[in-house]
Amino acid sequence: MAPKVERFVSPGKGNGLRATAGIRPGELVHSADPLAACVSLKRARSACHHCFSRHEALLRCSQCKMARYCNITCQKQAWPVHKSECKCLRSILPRIPTDSVRLAARIIFALCASPKGNSEELYTLEEHESHLSSLSEQKKEGLSQLASMLQLYLQQEIPSLEQAWSSLPPSCQDPLSLMGKVTCNCFTVSDGELQEIGVGLYPSLSLLNHDCGPNCVMVFEGTKLQLRAVKEIKLGDELTVSYIDSLELTEDRQKQLEEQYHFTCTCQRCNSRDKDVLTVSGEEATWRPLKDALSRLDGLKAESNWQELVDVCRNLLSEAGDNVPDENLYKLKVIDAALDACIQLELWEEALAFGLRTLPVYSTYFADPHPVHGVQLMRVGKLQHYLEHISDAFDTFKQAFEILKVTHGDTHHLTSELRMKMEECRCELNQ
């Protein structure tokens, strides 16, 4: 099949990707396996370190005690990649390096195993920007600490890599430069429901530039990245994705992009600031406590302290009352946190009530087809189905399917699950 993308120089942005033909919404534009990927530390106990699927019970590597796998098959398939990593992990136990350091090490192992890389890549690792010259002294210091950890981590394996090491591109031999490339160009690998699983480097797709209202989205099947169009794209149009959570104030989005990716976004949405008034609707004195509580809520969620999380959310929402509309960004985030906690605590009726409150707001903020809106509809539909609100669940699943068949494609496992849920509802309604 002829490629649908090509590399080009995007005015004011540097390199980019553009369409070599017209592309329809829902069409698979490009798919890619990572040069390297690793499960994030927060998912290290719940996701397979080979296929990235999530399970409650996983086999643990008997040597490093960190890597976990679905079964013996995954463990054997992972060994060519894991064997070098395993020695490195054992050498610095009980410390475990950050996600970016472990990813950088895996990139080195991959390059040493195949120094010429993939000839079909549109963009090589050597060409990736490290942005070292534009970093503040504070950020350079932080990157230097990661580079030092990478050197310490690799110390055990460097002798066995020595012959291949000299054939690597110069910037990949320099730990500081490599860490700069990794932190600026890696992608968050997520599951079908957009929950973070790990990080990976996809060289060709690093060419994609950002837009807060993009024409493409990225979804994953395991570690394979699929780029799908969500808008009509004409021959020669630039392909864009959103690097960040688009549900933020313009100044917060721009600040994050400047700090992490070193550019100022001037997309249509940033220039118009079209949703900013709505995101902070209500009296600031009333919604400010909601905003101030978000970091605490994130901490409780990270600790899986669901009971305290739901109690704090209930109190915050009760105090805000109707003085802050649900469209307020910070109130929406508190409602979402309450929904997560209620699901974990099996408070199904309350979870459904919170979920239903989010749907009209998601519809307002995420122009369809948007995967975040589709996944939220599916979550609410599952709650309705469990509580035997079959007709409502069927309608919600249908709405979700119309979105996810575009954003995830017909063959994605989440779309297949949704199709089965719709069929279950149809059978139950017929009975």
From TrEMBL:
Keywords, comma-separated and alphabetical: Metal-binding, Methyltransferase, S-adenosyl-L-methionine, Transferase, Zinc, Zinc-finger
Gene Ontology terms, MF aspect: histone H3K4 trimethyltransferase activity; zinc ion binding
GO process terms (BP): methylation
Domain of life, per lineage: Eukaryota
One Pfam family this sequence matches: SET
PROSITE patterns, per database record: SET (PS50280), ZF_MYND_1 (PS01360), ZF_MYND_2 (PS50865)
Residue intervals of the MYND-type domain: 48-86
Family matches, as InterPro entries: H3K4_H4K5_MeTrfase, SET_dom, SET_dom_sf, TPR-like_helical_dom_sf, Znf_MYND
Recorded catalytic activity of this chain's protein: L-lysyl(4)-[histone H3] + 3 S-adenosyl-L-methionine = N(6),N(6),N(6)-trimethyl-L-lysyl(4)-[histone H3] + 3 S-adenosyl-L-homocysteine + 3 H(+)
SET domain mapped to chain residues: 3-244
E.C. designation(s): 2.1.1.354
Gene Ontology cellular-component terms listed: nucleus
Protein name: [histone H3]-lysine(4) N-trimethyltransferase
Source species of the chain: Mugilogobius chulae (yellowstripe goby)
